[in-house]
Amino acid sequence: MNKKSFSTNKVATRQGYGEGLVIAGEADEKVVVLCADLTESTRSILFKEKFPDRFIEIGVAEQALATIAAGMATYGKIPFISSYAAFSPGRNWEQIRTTIALNDVPVKIAGAHAGLTVGPDGATHQMLEDIALMRAMPNMVVMYPADAIEARKATVAAAKNGKPTYIRLAREKTPIITTEKTPFEIGKSHVLLNPSTRSADAQGRLEQSRKATSSGPHGDPQVAIIGAGPLLYEAVVAAKKLAESGIETVVINSHTIKPIDEQTIIKYAKITGAVVTVEEHQINGGLGGAVAEVLARNFPVPQEFVGMPDSFGESGDPDELLEKYHMKSADIIAAVKKVITRKNS
Amino acid sequence: MTRKLTNQELKEKANLIRLDIIKMLVEAGSGHSAGPLGMADIFTAFYFNLLKHDPKNPQWEERDRLILSNGHITPVRYVAMAHAGYFPISELKTLRKLGSRLQGHPERKRLPGVETTSGPLGSGLAQASGYAYAARMDGQKFRVYCICSDGEHDSGNHWEAVLFAGKNKLSNLTAIVDRNNIQIDGYTEEVMPLEPLRAKYEAFNWHVLHIDGHNLEEIIDAVNHAKAVFEKPTVIIAHTIPGKGVDYMENDPKWHGAVPGVSDMPGEPSKEKQTQIALHELRTLKGKIKSEHE
């Protein structure tokens, strides 16, 4: 695990979304994109430039954004609706529930600028409740890509899944931690880092890491770190530091939060006996909650939650905010040590 | 395709539909009375004269789309659909019961022929606008109709759609507003005044027609007139009497969300007599419901 290789290449997940829209649009002419006056910043502009006739400007009207798209999808289009997560699904949740999810039409909701790291804009724009809102909704698929490459893959996959789907995106440029070759399948999480392989495909060394599997014994992992979104970078950094001090962990990218990959969660809970979840979202109702629901029903183990502790954010630089609200690698390390203590007590 | 009924046949059909609305609501024991009775003539005109549709093939691609925004008046749609042959009339008895395709508010996935899931107000016109926009992209010839209530004009989502349809000149879209002047909390002009409604729509670049919503000729003429307006969407403001046909229900907000035979109401027939009186009045009115100007 080479820290340097992560920090050299940073791209925002919203950029991956924009690129994914173009690919999806080329593959299927039923794909249309609607945007609520945020065409540049949601990167929907990439689609607009390529397919101006299939781009629809809605204006600052997120309820219309959802419901007009619902009508288009009921007709037979595959609409992607782009806005900030604070407004969509923040403002139009009931419209999404009734006209998209209950109606069961394939509208793809892209919530950009989600999370604390929208930074200086402050609490109004720091959407930290959207996973809870969306994962409670029947028929809805919820995805939270780890980096721009994965966001592109998630967008392309969403265009084909035939379901109401939410894709959570961030504003900040964040490290690329997957590769073009990293497998991506909706509902199937991906092990980013595993001590038994002692490598991650994050460095483009997937093949090497597979070979390394048989090359020698490593310590059994003591904790499964399950995360989603760009904070997975912090999780990998934490795992590497922990490994240096002799604590092995597995890092799992649960990019699909609904339907969540129960099998992988249970498998690693059984191997490690302890779980730490990591997300840039309220601890209440987020990925951690989804993991806890799986564990409680199948294989209860101690779990610690890294995320927003029932609080709104505030203006500040993204890194300052992550530090203040305890979502950095140091906080993940502390959570891992705490959960090991609980496991052993 | 169903045969277009004549004016006299439509009047008789509308009355049969009113009778079945009362029967199904009494059987269900809950629901809305005033809106469905008030819209019986308009739904009759659509299902038995205006719509291009095939009850035996609800997914027919060329069908006109009738999108109901104010889902709570769905009993009138269910009865009209049953009479048109979408499903057996006997199924009307299942309204609001466990396992029924006839949900209290309509769901697209449960009943073929229902175009959208609706109930929460203010979202239907936006769905209809999106539908019309998408259909126009593909050069489709069918028309999109949206039936909505006056009360839901309180909501922002509705006016967002009015803006969108006006901007995009969706002339394949016709909205019909059930202007019955009541909503749950009372009269619309007291709850949240909507007038001047015509001027509002005109200011949003819509073509506006006013009709008597109980005059079948006016309904049919207005909807056909809208087909010849090519530069704008059209809204038909249909003045209706809530509860039309049952004297004690007409124009009274308390019958918005109530059904006969369930509870006593001050100044009304006893709950034992409500159903009997309603059905009797409707039978004696057979084919005789008149608009105010007839």
TrEMBL record, chain A:
<dbReference type="InterPro" id="IPR051157">
    <property type="entry name" value="PDH/Transketolase"/>
</dbReference>
<dbReference type="Pfam" id="PF02779">
    <property type="entry name" value="Transket_pyr"/>
</dbReference>
<keyword id="KW-0808">Transferase</keyword>
<feature type="region of interest" description="Disordered">
    <location>
        <begin position="197"/>
        <end position="221"/>
    </location>
</feature>
<dbReference type="GO" id="GO:0016740">
    <property type="term" value="F:transferase activity"/>
</dbReference>
<dbReference type="InterPro" id="IPR029061">
    <property type="entry name" value="THDP-binding"/>
</dbReference>
<dbReference type="InterPro" id="IPR033248">
    <property type="entry name" value="Transketolase_C"/>
</dbReference>
<protein>
    <submittedName>
        <fullName>Transketolase</fullName>
    </submittedName>
</protein>
<dbReference type="InterPro" id="IPR009014">
    <property type="entry name" value="Transketo_C/PFOR_II"/>
</dbReference>
<dbReference type="Pfam" id="PF02780">
    <property type="entry name" value="Transketolase_C"/>
</dbReference>
<dbReference type="InterPro" id="IPR005475">
    <property type="entry name" value="Transketolase-like_Pyr-bd"/>
</dbReference>
<comment type="similarity">
    <text>Belongs to the transketolase family.</text>
</comment>
<keyword id="KW-0786">Thiamine pyrophosphate</keyword>
<dbReference type="InterPro" id="IPR020826">
    <property type="entry name" value="Transketolase_BS"/>
</dbReference>
<feature type="domain" description="Transketolase-like pyrimidine-binding">
    <location>
        <begin position="11"/>
        <end position="176"/>
    </location>
</feature>
From TrEMBL, chain B:
<protein>
    <submittedName>
        <fullName>Transketolase</fullName>
    </submittedName>
</protein>
<keyword id="KW-0786">Thiamine pyrophosphate</keyword>
<feature type="domain" description="Transketolase N-terminal">
    <location>
        <begin position="12"/>
        <end position="261"/>
    </location>
</feature>
<dbReference type="InterPro" id="IPR029061">
    <property type="entry name" value="THDP-binding"/>
</dbReference>
<comment type="similarity">
    <text>Belongs to the transketolase family.</text>
</comment>
<dbReference type="Pfam" id="PF00456">
    <property type="entry name" value="Transketolase_N"/>
</dbReference>
<dbReference type="InterPro" id="IPR005474">
    <property type="entry name" value="Transketolase_N"/>
</dbReference>
